[in-house]
Amino acid sequence: MISAVLNFLKPPGMTSHDAVSFVRHTYRQKRVGHSGTLDPAAAGVLPIYLGYATRLVEYGDSFDKTYRAEVLLGIKTDTGDDTGAVMQQTTVNLPPLQRIRVVIESFQGGYEQVPPMYSALKIDGKKLYELARAGKIVQRQARRIEIPSISLLAVHDCRLTIEVSCSKGTYIRTLCEDIGERLSMPATMSLLLRTRVGPFAVNQSVSMEEIAAEPEQALMPPEFAVSHLAACNLSETESIDLRHGRQVRPGCLLKDGDDAQLVRLYDAKRTFFGMGRFDSADGILKPIKIFSGGMDELC
């Protein structure tokens, strides 16, 4: 079994499920998963996990993401992007550039965002997009989302190109609509490219064609998916104890952080063999996920 991660460059028109199917077929692996679903019309970074590396998917759930998006002014659709039915269309009198820039930058720091109807969120066991397709509109609670940075990159006619870094749960389609609202005009998203998911960056991503040509070259070690977490290099004795489910007081140096800090575990041969949780209050390291023979076998 292959255990690895892929920085997959999803093309527009492909679902995230289709991307997983392609990888499963290419590598002849049954155990394949992904983090950070991308809409079919969107393109960009889609982290895909193979084999036992799928056990690391959960650590990517909270990754911040970076996007480039195009805001089309003067049009509102039922889906929030240009794949939907047009509900409103107006003539655009483009505001001064400085006004546009100020409005866009006003979203930096975050705001209370209402999830769109065309989303996979569930209410009473039903996905919102299922209700939307049935013609039902339901009340949604606004949720706080964080936007560490947002900027205007270009203006062309009635189209604004923006770059935004945001927290998990941010809907860029809704952000585009909200930008239009603050500019006092309808707006929809006409393009979306995801350029980063945590440590996965678009300039290091691989396309379907590249994977098909050189499948092995496209693979990255599983620990890349958790490279944002601190590493703990352990002695042989400490590694054995952790592999057998025992907690240790590690000799490796770990910076004080959260009371319970997630760390990558490496044995004396510097082989990644699992995940642990370090409690800085008492100096105890506990095993969380252990791979008994590196990534070859999972306990």
Q: What does this molecule look like?
A:
With 299 residues, the protein is of the alpha+beta class. It folds into three domains: 4-62 and 199-224, Pseudouridine synthase (2-Layer Sandwich); 65-192, Pseudouridine synthase, CATH 3.30.2350; 229-290, Archaeosine Trna-guanine Transglycosylase, Chain: A, domain 4 (Roll), CATH 2.30.130.10. It contains seven helices and 18 strands. The protein has helices spanning 16-27, 97-105, 128-133, 172-182, 208-213, 215-218, 236-243; strands spanning 4-10, 32-34, 43-50, 65-73, 75-77, 86-89, 111-113, 122-123, 126-127, 143-145, 149-156, 159-166, 187-197, 200-201, 230-233, 260-266, 272-279, 284-290. Strands 1, 2, 3, 4, 11, 12, 13 and 14 form an eight-stranded mixed sheet that branches. The chain has a four-stranded mixed sheet with strand order 15-16-17-18, with helices on one face. It has a two-stranded antiparallel sheet with strand order 5-6. A hairpin with a 5-residue loop joins strand 16 and strand 17. The longest helix has 12 residues, at 16-27. It is elongated and about 70 Å long. The protein starts with a strand and ends in a 9-residue tail after the last strand. The model is unreliable at 293-299 (pLDDT under 50).
